[in-house]
Structure formats: C-alpha cells, structure tokens
Amino acid sequence: MSGCEARDAKKLVRSPSGLRMVPEHRSARSPFGLDEPPWVPDKECPRCMQCDTKFDFITRKHHCRRCGKCFCDKCCSKKVPLPRMCFVDPVRQCAECALISQKEAEFYDKQLKVLMNGATFFVTLGTSDKSELMVCRLSNNQRYLVLDGDSHYEIEIIQISTVQILTEGFTPGDKDIHTYTSLLESQHITEGGNTRAIGMILQYKVPGSEELTQMKFTASEDLSCNKKLSASWLAAMHKATKLLYESRDQ
Predict the structure, then answer these.
(1) What whole-number distance in Å separates Cα of residue 64 and Cα of residue 54?
(2) What domains appear along the chain, each with residue ranges and CATH number?
(3) N or C of the chain: less Cβ packing under 10 Å?
C-alpha cells in the first residue's frame, strides 16, 4: 500500500437525508464526492417545484436528497443509490436527479473498478524522449493516480488540470483527441467520435509548484490483451474526467 493509500478513517453520520459513511477528515474525501445540498425551507415552498401541486394535510412535501428542492410524493417517489454523497441506503430523489444518479451508477459499478484495477502503459514525463513501462491505477481512496515501474509517482486528482485522451481512427489534428480541461480550469470541451483510445496526456501541478507538468501515456502494443485492457482503462478515465468536469456546477 502506497503512502497515498493509508487507510482513511470513516465515520457513520446521520443527516436529515439519511445515514452516510463519510471520511473523518474532509481532506480525505473522494474527488468524485458531492456535498449534501441545503434543503429549500418548508415555508418557501407552498407548492411542488415540479408539478405546482399545492401542499396540504393530504399532499405532503418531500425534499430531493440530491438537489434539495421540494416536491410532492408523485414527483419525488424514487429511492435511488447516491454513492457520491456517501449514503448507506438508496435515498429519495426527484425524477431528474434520479435519472442522473442512475447514469452515474454505471461509473461506480464498472468504470471505477476498472480504474482501480489498473492497466499498463509506456509513460513519458515532460519533454523526455525516454519512456518507462508502468502500471497506472486509481488509488483505493480515489484521490490519486498511482504509477508503478522502476519509478513511482502519485498524482493527486485535484491537481490535474488537463486530460487528453488520444484516439485511433482520425488523421492527426484537432479531432485526434478527446479534451477535458476539467479539474482546475474552465475551458471548452471538445470530444471526438467513437474511436478506440490508445493513449492519454495529463497536465498537472506538483505540490509546491505553480508550473504544469506533462505526462504522456501510450498503450503497449506487445500483447493484444494488454492493449484491450489499456483501452478500457482509458475509456473509464474519460468517463471519470467527464464526471468531474460536470460536477463543478453541482
């Protein structure tokens, strides 16, 4: 277990929304996590914020655990898992939020496991002309990319500025990459077509430095199984970056 993966203590807390298993220290939280939203006060929502039904003794009001808005039972009846807020059990959500949470479930059930299992790449640091064969994986606490080979790197997810997924199928040019300048910046997203991922370029900040460091990952061509595994890992990384990009406004 690397230094970035020392077991983070967790605690069970009860909020108005339900039971949550959260890190004892906020600094140890997953970058994929979301904060619980403040609930719209009851006195400010005399009607359902979806269908405009008036609340009364019969028609009770319910708060969506993901957005905090107030709805009638008909518009907020689904109980859906919400791992991004660390809820132990499925929680009540409005139809719109439930759909988003259900889509995110695939990331937690599939892509996150792929990222944590890791894949093998040739890694080139900066402008060097030498590459090193390394295993890259997401740490168990989801906060770092861990690279192991003759060298060892731990890149904190929140320090990554740019993720570019290199794809196969286009001639070199603007369409040769999926770009998410996602975690520290607010730049435009461009996304290519349905092509196979063959590599990745990261730009990130090293603690104590304001300059960006670049690292390039290239899938190994030696074994077809490694090539397929690397492509799956890159596709999962693409999903993770998109999730983090979209989370900035949540």
Answers:
(1) 17
(2) 10-112 (3.30.40.10), 118-168+198-249 (2.30.29.160)
(3) N
**pLDDT higher than threshold 80 for residue 194:** no
List, for residues 116-166, the tens digit of each pLDDT value. Answer: 999 999 999 988 889 999 999 999 999 999 999 999 999 999 899 888 888
Q: Residue 46 is encoded by which pair of tokens?
A: 């005399």
Q: If you write DSSP's letter for every residue of 131-146 in order, what string do you get?
A: -EEEEEEE-TTSSEEE
User: Is the pLDDT score of 177 beyond 50?
Assistant: no
User: 137-173: b or e for each residue (b if 16 or more CB lie within 10 Å)?
Assistant: bbbbbbbbbbbebeeebebbbebbbbbbbbbeeeeee
Helix (H, G, I), strand (E, B) or coil at 214: strand
- SS3 of 151, please? coil
pLDDT(172) > 80: no
pTM, entire model: 0.79
The torsion angles phi and psi of 57, rounded to 5 degrees, stand at -65, -30
Tokens of 228: 């397929």
**How far is Cα 116 from Cα 134, in angstroms, rounded to an integer?**
14
Tens digits of residue pLDDT in 136-145: 999 999 999 9
